[in-house]
Amino acid sequence: METLQENVQIQVRFITQQRKYAVTDSVILVPISLRRYGLSEIINHLLGFEKPIPFDFLIDNQFLRTSLSEYIQNANLSTENILTIKYVESLLPPTPLSTFQHYDWISSVKSHDQSLFLTGSYDNHVRIFNTSGECLKTFAGHQAPIKSVSWISVSDENVTFLSASQDQTIRAWEASLIDDKYLTLYECKGHKGNVESISLHPSHTKFASASWDSSILFWTTAIPEESEQEILEISSKRRKLNDRETKVKTPIAKMHGHVGPVSSVAFDINDHGKMYSGGWDHSVRIWDIESTTNFNTKNCDKSVLNIAYSEKSGLIASGHSDQVIRLWDPRAKGTLIFYSELLDLLIISII
Fold first, then answer.
1. Which fold has domain 257-351?
2. Where is the NLE domain (predicted)?
C-alpha cells in the first residue's frame, strides 16, 4: 500500500465519557502524522489547561499505538472519512508497595480500608495480611483449594469473613486481632460442585454462592443459636478444626438458570433486590432476589469467568477467555465492548 503523505490532514471528532475533559464534538482537521502525544496536545489546547494532562486514545474500541496514518492504512480507511476518536486520561501503572508470600496459587484477595488483606490460596488456607506484607493469621479447615473470600465485618479487635472452596463448602470465620484465637462460626453445605464465588449482600445479613454445579445458593450470615464451639488457639503446627464441632448450615434459597458452571456472582449495590451472575454458558444473568427469578439474560460468544458491579456507573464488567473485558448495562439491551491490546491472557478476575 502506498504510504500516505505526512502533510495530509484528516477530519476527526473527539469524544469522551469523562465530562471534566469534554471538548467540542465538532469535526476538526488534524495532521495525519499525529500520534498519542500530538493528539494529547490538541486536547489540552482545547481545554486550556496550564498543566498538560496525558491522554490515551481509542478508535473502534482499540487503543491507538501508532500514528493516525498507520492506523488508517492498516484499517483500509480513506482519508476522506471522519474519524471518531475517543480519549481517556492516561494513568500510570500502580507501584508495588509490598509482597504477600504464599505457598501456592492465590485465587482470591479482598482488602479492607487499605489496612488488611484477606487472601485465599490453592494450599487450602485463608490468610490475613497487613500492608507491610506481614501475615497476621493463617486459617486451616478447608480440605481443598480456596476459590473466593469475602469480609463480613472488621473491628479493632475482631474480624469475621467467609471463604469458599473446591471442597464444595463455605465457611464463616471469626478471629481476634489481638491474640491467636479463631473459630469457625458455621459451615455451609448444599453445593454439589466446587464453590467458585461468594458475594456479600449490601445489608451484610445475606450472601450468595456460585458453583460448578450450575447453581447459585442464597444464605444468611446469622450464626446458628445452637452452635456451641470453643475458640481454638492456633498452634505452631496449625491445629485443624474439629469438623464434628462445626455447625452445618443449609441455604435459604436456590437459583437455577445457568447451563454449566457458574463462575461469579455479584450484588447490585444500588438496588438491593438485584443480583448478577456470570457462567460458562456465555451469559450474564440478572436475578430478582426475592422471587429468585432470572428476569434478564445477556449473551456473548465466550465463557464468563468473572463479573464485577460498578456502584458509580451501574454497569457490569465481565472478564472472558478471549482477552476482552465487556461492559454491560443492565438497564439496556446488548453489550458495550471494550478491547485492550495490552490483554494477551485469560481475564479471570476483575474488581
1. Thrombin, subunit H (2.40.10)
2. 10-72
Domain 101-248 CATH superfamily: YVTN repeat-like/Quinoprotein amine dehydrogenase (2.130.10.10)
Question: Tell me, what amino acid is at 109?
Answer: V
From CA 274, how far away is CA 233, in angstroms rounded?
A: 40
Q: What amino acid is encoded at 138 in this protein? A: T
Q: pLDDT (tens digit, 9 = 90+) per residue, 68-115?
A: 999 999 988 888 889 999 999 998 887 877 777 888 999 999 999 878
Q: Are 327 and 338 in contact (CB under 8 A)?
A: yes
What are the tens digits of pLDDT across the range 146-174?
999 999 999 989 999 999 999 999 999 99
pTM over 0.85: no
Give the CATH architecture of domain 9-89.
Answer: Roll (3.10)
- The Cα 296–Cα 259 span in angstroms is 15
Q: Report the distance separating Cα 42 and Cα 48, nearest Å.
A: 10
C-alpha cell at 123: 494450599
- Of the listed ranges 63-72, 181-190, 299-308, 329-338, the least confidently predicted one is 329-338
CA atoms of 220 and 253, how far apart (whole Å) = 10
Short-list 117, 153, 121, CA closest to 140: 121
Tell which phi-psi region holds residue 46, choosing left (phi > 0), alpha (psi between -120 and 50) or beta.
alpha
Residues of the chain with CATH 2.130.10.10: 101-248
